[in-house]
Fold RNA polymerase sigma-70 factor, sigma-E family.
Amino acid sequence: MTAHLPAVPTATEASGVYRGRARRGDMAAAEDDFAEFVRVALPGLMRYGHALAGNPHDAADLVQTVLEKVGARWSKISRNCADPTAYVRKAMANTHVSRWRRTRRETLLADFPDIPAAIQQDRLEHEPLWIALRSLPPRQRAVVVLRYYEGLSELEIADSLGISCGTVKSQASKAMATLRKRLGPLVGGGDA
């Protein structure tokens, strides 16, 4: 009678098993790294999203949408990007612009709803600065928020949005001129 011994894996098979375990370990490390990134960056991303979208509810949707996409590719992004936060901000700006373009079209309804939806008012909804900021085009709004609200330099903004420093300067200039024009009477003659 011959005893059947379990097959011993070859060196190639063993290394494949080891690489598979290493990959699973790398995936767990990448998930932990992404969770830590979200924990640290989330408050700033929510502020940025609020300023882009104009209200906290759309901001939360925007941040969640972008983080879902980024989380799926986190290991590649963290390996290839020097500043993942800038990458996420750029993705947020692009997603916001895409959503804005998609939803600015008129939506026709066959019938009006029977009961109007109760909308909870944002405390900043009627604030003149927020109204003026929401009226800016998306790219100008993004530049203003990153520059004056998040305190980024022109170079950091250019990297975040994937535009040149000259474009950052011109967009900031146009945005500030528009804000001064709209808020001038409120701040005493337009020297905002």
Summary: The CA atoms of residues 100 and 138 lie 8 Å apart.
